[in-house]
Design brief:
Oligomer: heterodimer
Bound molecules: adenosine-5'-triphosphate, magnesium ion, zinc ion
Order of helices and strands of chain B: HEHEEEHHEE
Number of strands of chain A: 11
Largest interface: A-B, 42 and 46 residues
Number of helices of chain A: 11
Low-confidence stretches of chain A: none
Strand content of chain A: 15-25%
Radius of gyration of chain B: 17 Å
Largest sheet of chain A: 8 strands, mixed
Structural class of chain A: alpha/beta
Low-confidence stretches of chain B: none
Largest sheet of chain B: 3 strands, mixed
CATH topology of chain B: hypothetical protein PF0899 fold
Strand order of the largest sheet of chain A: 6-7-3-8-2-9-10-11
Shape of chain A: globular
CATH architecture of chain A: 3-Layer(aba) Sandwich
CATH topology of chain A: Rossmann fold
Mean pLDDT of chain A: 93
CATH architecture of chain B: 2-Layer Sandwich
Strand content of chain B: 25-35%
Helix content of chain B: 25-40%
């Protein structure tokens, strides 16, 4: 081989990563619904927020990025979620939302994945999913600062975060760390939602304000939610949805 | 309607162009691509898509595709085995085609039944090497 010729070993280069930002080109805002702890209501907030924004005539996508315990399809009662193969994958439409979940591929089976597998799935899905033109892509994030969450932050540079917390000191402890980490990573935080409130307390609101992060509002523990799961009509009528609706207005008016 | 292979080809073309520019190539003469068996990529369609999508710095590039057998290794008992494409039902096979990791939902270690195994080789599409001519 003469000097003009060059052979580069490209084995470090994952071809899929290079197309991800292009795939999200038509998406105006990507909102990651995250939380410091499990079970605080991330999936419920992500799903109902997506419905509310869609009811207000926005084009909305919902991506369930929790591969270990996907739950938005249960919340929405979405049964036929097969994407369409067309130059990649076109998400199915569920109750007006462009919807993507790992359940389309794992069906009813458990999908035990290691960290590198999860990274691979995330890269593959971001690389082949054609979201098209969207006002909002809502991502139901995997827990806290797991490998998977870090991967999404790396792959999608324009995430805006909503952090869901309960009123508990224990939840706030992890939220505090998450907020610091996001600040270090220069990721914008839209604010904290206080979910499952059971009694009057200003603890979380004060703590959040002290960190210089917007307190977006509170949602009470709503006993009607359980029976509304899987039925979007009933979900829309819950106190949960009404309170989240006020929070959604604040998000709409952000940049 | 184009198959999913077109999206993979788009990714390869975009990545190769980026690498070639970074490495200061004037044009790319050959790209070697490894295609893992697990993903069951339709080679004809994939190759056709690559030749249709190439342009600019890749105009003259020749794509060499090589299939890599899928080998699975159990983390629990150490058993190593090959993935047999026709062992899956149609739905499962299609899922693995889009998301190779979905294999963990459908295939168990043939010796101990564990879903905790590693895909050692042959997962998906990979760029192995790029040959080209540098700017003088
Ligand atoms: N405000 C509320 N009132 C009543 N029930 C609620 C409320 N918020 C959430 N829930 C319920 O609490 C449970 C946990 O909510 P959800 O699954 O959304 O949490 P999560 O943070 O996504 O959990 P995970 O960390 O497992 O993904 C669900 O059964 C949900 O219906
Ligand atoms: Mg959840
Ligand atoms: Zn085994």
């Amino acid at each position: 081989m003469d000097r003009k010729h060059k052979r580069c070993t490209a084995s470090m280069m994952d071809p899929r990563v290079s197309v991800i930002s292009g795939r999200l080109k038509g998406v105006k805002r990507v909102i990651a619904v995250s939380g410091g702890k499990g079970g605080v209501g991330k999936s419920l907030v992500a799903s109902v927020l997506a419905l509310i924004l869609s009811d207000r005539q926005h084009q909305v996508g919902l991506f369930d990025a929790d591969f270990t315990s996907p739950s938005t399809h249960v919340i929405l009662g979405a049964s036929k979620i097969q994407p369409l193969e067309d130059n990649g994958l076109v998400p199915c439409v569920a109750h007006g939302l462009r919807y993507m979940s790992i359940v389309a591929f794992s069906h009813d089976e458990a999908l035990p994945l290691r960290g590198t597998d999860v990274s691979n799935v995330l890269i593959e899905l971001f690389a082949i999913t054609r979201w098209g033109e969207l006002d909002f892509l809502i991502i139901d994030m995997p827990p806290g600062i797991s490998d998977a969450a870090l991967d999404i932050m790396r792959l999608v540079r324009r995430l805006e975060f909503i952090i869901v917390s309960t009123p508990s000191l224990l939840t706030f402890e992890t939220v505090r760390k998450l907020v610091r980490l996001l600040a270090d990573m220069k990721a914008p935080v839209l604010g904290v939602v206080e979910n499952m409130k059971m009694r009057e307390s200003t603890f979380l609101a004060r703590q959040v304000a002290a960190m210089g992060v917007p307190y977006l509002g509170e949602i009470p523990y709503d006993p009607k939610v359980e029976d509304a799961l899987g039925n979007v009509k009933l979900l829309r009528e819950t106190v949960f949805a009404r309170k989240l609706s006020e929070i959604a207005s604040k998000l709409e008016s952000c940049p | 309607m184009y198959m999913h292979e077109w999206a993979l080809a788009e990714a390869v073309v975009s990545a190769v162009s980026q690498i070639a520019q970074r490495e200061g190539l004037k044009f790319v003469s050959q790209v070697k691509i490894m295609v893992g068996e697990l993903q069951q990529v339709e080679l004809d369609i994939f190759e056709f898509a690559l030749t249709q999508l190439k342009s600019g710095i890749l105009e003259k590039a020749k794509f060499v595709l090589e299939t890599v057998p899928a080998r699975l290794l159990c983390r629990v008992c150490g058993k190593e085995w090959s993935f047999a494409r026709n062992s899956l039902a149609r739905d499962a096979s299609e899922a693995v085609h889009f998301i190779p990791e979905a294999v963990h939902a459908y295939v168990r270690c043939p010796k101990c039944g564990s879903p905790d195994y590693e895909v050692v080789t042959g997962r998906g599409v990979w760029i192995e090497s790029i040959k080209g001519v540098q700017h003088p």
